[in-house]
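Work Package 3 committed the consortium to producing structural models of liganded targets before the mid-term review. Because experimental data for this complex are still outstanding, the team generated a predictive model from sequence and the ligand definition alone, so that downstream docking and mutagenesis planning could proceed in parallel. The input record is reproduced below exactly as it was submitted to the modelling pipeline, together with the SMILES string for flavin mononucleotide.
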Amino acid sequence: MKTRTIDPKQLPVKDLHQYILGAVSPRPIAFASTLDREGNPNLAPYSFFNAFSSNPPVLVFSSNRKVKDNQTKDTLHNIRETGEVVINAVNFAMMRQMALASIEYPAHIDEFIKAGFTPLASDLVKPFRVAESPAQMECKVKDIITLGDEGGAGHLIICDVLRIHIHEDVIDEQNRIDPHRIDLVGRMGRAYYVRASGPAIHTVFQPVTDMAIGFDQLPASIRQSPILTGNEIAEIAALTELPVTASLELLSLDLEVSKLLEQEEGYSALHQMARNAITAGSIDRAAGLLMLADSLYAQ
Ligand SMILES: Cc1cc2nc3c(=O)[nH]c(=O)nc-3n(C[C@H](O)[C@H](O)[C@H](O)COP(=O)(O)O)c2cc1C
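The resulting structure, written out as tokens with the ligand in place, is given here.
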């Protein structure tokens, strides 16, 4: 694979910034609501953001110095003054309005009004919640870590979560947030966003205590299959054991399989059939077909 190798020191910050945004992506969006010391509301999106601890619950986002003029942002100023922020999740229904709130309005302008959001009083902190947001987290700021003093430098804003409010209609019967119902968006590079619901969502069940056999224990004929993708081989590597010889003999008597064995390209045909079985969710059968191919055709 041809690779582009980048030395961060050799690139203008604006270009480096875009490589980082494109590679560390998609990012969740913290829609940060703060007040200045006079009580004027401020609202702005921040996608250098994530959760870092559940006990205690801690969220971190980064407010960067502007690349063009090295200025710091209102959210950071307000947090330095008050030590409080409400972090609101952003879903698809509010995506376009959220982008409006990222405009560099002067400090006294209220982005709730500019972007058409509804302020909702918080329980434990002074900044407002965004009523339209499906998950609103009231936070006290624990620490601010300054990462540099030039344009593009971040300030990590480390937030203790004091209270969480979740729209009831995004919670399922197991008391878990349903990703399709909450319908969050993520920020990518440039003007790209991703909507995390519908076909964009994939389910991967991977028990972490069962010792899966792993790639290294698969025969080379499976690891190097010209037909299976890495994801498909991983389904076989995730099994805790490979099928035993007796079950392979039974499988070779299966009418569909025995027809394939008569073909000249039996190895490829078995791998193709295994691939179809993986797509259909029949991983044990796929493993059997692949082991059969191994026992019959591998040198
Ligand atoms: C989706 C999105 C994510 C953003 N993420 C960040 C970020 O992580 N850090 C940052 O400094 N600016 C980020 N910005 C830009 C700020 O929102 C923008 O500079 C805004 O005017 C800051 O507002 P404030 O001065 O009221 O804090 C983002 C903008 C958008 C639209």
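Reviewers should note the following from the model. DSSP finds eleven helices and eleven strands in the chain. These observations will guide the Year 2 experiments.
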